[in-house]
């Protein structure tokens, strides 16, 4: 077993199912490109969904070291049933903050609620409602991958190694794949437990960021459950078509933040994939 199945289900790029024929496995490289129509919804206020039109998949697996898109790691134990890796990665929560806008709002002094700004309306001084900026975090941790007739199980724990948020995440995922001739159906379910430090950095509002339109908020720890379903059909050795759907529900501590407009994060992709 290698680390090919270790990528997070909810990374911004929706990866399509991969053929596991003998020729593909003989090379340390995994190269592919997918073209289609997809998006990942953005739960932040004043935000745009994250489009997915092109997915470039690039990975390299050596005897011990590997690189899998945005993950890099070292394999400590590799057997037919269990693989244990040390993995470095970039936290994916930051991607939402690249698709936000600043808006002027009017704040009613009587009720303290923000409404859309109407030119000429002079109830109060217009206030900027800006989603706070957040940085990417480089995280380091361990993952355990187990595979058998029962399916695939992934357990992972990562801690902030860059000093960005100072927190950690524990990730658990169970998946099963059915194959019949050229068809493949893969499903998975799991959750990510995110510490208070991690959630508060990305979803909280610090005192120096707060104003009349955006109150201060401190987020705590919580569980984000997730689901995924992917259906693919192998056209030729290199070409396949696939449809993928993903769902994540933000923890209550994150969803209650004033910068969050939608608790559910949904991803979808439909297209064709070419594997070199």
Sheet/helix structural class: mainly beta
In the CATH scheme, what's the topology name? Porin
- Largest beta sheet: strand ordering: 1-2-3-4-5-9-10-11-12-13-14-15
CATH architecture descriptor: Beta Barrel
Order of helices and strands: HEEEEEEEEEEEEHEEHE
Helix fraction bin: under 10%
> Tally of extended strands?
15
The biggest beta sheet is recorded as: 12 strands, antiparallel, barrel
- Contiguous helical run count: 3
Label the overall shape: globular
Report the average pLDDT across residues: 85
Radius of gyration: 21 Å
Low confidence ranges: 1-24, 102-123
What number of domains? 1
Strand content: over 45%
Q: N-to-C terminal Cα separation, in Å?
A: 21 Å
Query: What name goes with the CATH superfamily?
Result: monomeric porin ompg
Query: Regarding CATH, which class?
Result: Mainly Beta
Task: List the SSEs and their pairings.
Layout: H1 22-25, E1 29-40, E2 50-61, E3 65-68, E4 71-78, E5 82-90, E6 103-107, E7 114-116, E8 127-129, E9 138-148, E10 151-160, E11 168-180, E12 183-194, H2 196-203, E13 222-234, E14 239-249, H3 252-255, E15 264-275
Antiparallel strand pairs: 1-2, 1-15, 2-3, 3-4, 4-5, 5-9, 6-7, 6-8, 9-10, 10-11, 11-12, 12-13, 13-14, 14-15
């Amino acid at each position: 077993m290698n680390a090919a199945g270790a990528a997070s289900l909810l990374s911004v790029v929706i990866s399509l199912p991969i053929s596991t024929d003998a020729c593909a496995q003989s090379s340390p490289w995994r190269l592919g490109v997918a073209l289609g129509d997809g998006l990942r919804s953005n739960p932040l206020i004043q935000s745009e969904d994250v489009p997915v039109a092109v997915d470039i998949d690039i990975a390299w697996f050596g005897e011990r070291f590997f690189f899998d898109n945005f993950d890099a790691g070292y394999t400590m134990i590799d057997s037919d049933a269990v693989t244990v890796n040390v993995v470095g990665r970039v936290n994916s929560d930051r991607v939402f903050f690249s698709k936000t806008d600043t808006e002027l709002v009017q704040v009613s002094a009587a009720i303290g609620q923000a409404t859309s700004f109407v030119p000429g309306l002079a109830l109060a001084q217009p206030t900027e409602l800006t989603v706070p900026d957040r940085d990417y975090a480089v995280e380091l941790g361990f993952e355990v991958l187990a595979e058998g007739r029962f399916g695939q199980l992934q357990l992972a724990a990562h801690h902030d190694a860059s000093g960005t948020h100072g927190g950690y995440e524990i990730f658990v995922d169970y998946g099963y794949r059915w194959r019949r001739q050229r068809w493949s159906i893969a499903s998975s379910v799991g959750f990510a437990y995110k510490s208070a430090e991690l959630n508060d950095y990305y979803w909280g509002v610090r005192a120096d960021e707060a104003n009349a339109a955006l109150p201060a908020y401190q987020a705590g720890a919580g569980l984000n459950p997730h689901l995924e379903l992917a259906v693919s059909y192998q056209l030729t050795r290199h070409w396949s078509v696939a449809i993928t759907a993903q769902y994540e529900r933000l923890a209550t501590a994150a969803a209650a933040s004033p910068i969050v407009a939608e608790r559910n994060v949904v991803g979808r992709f439909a297209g064709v994939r070419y594997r070199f």
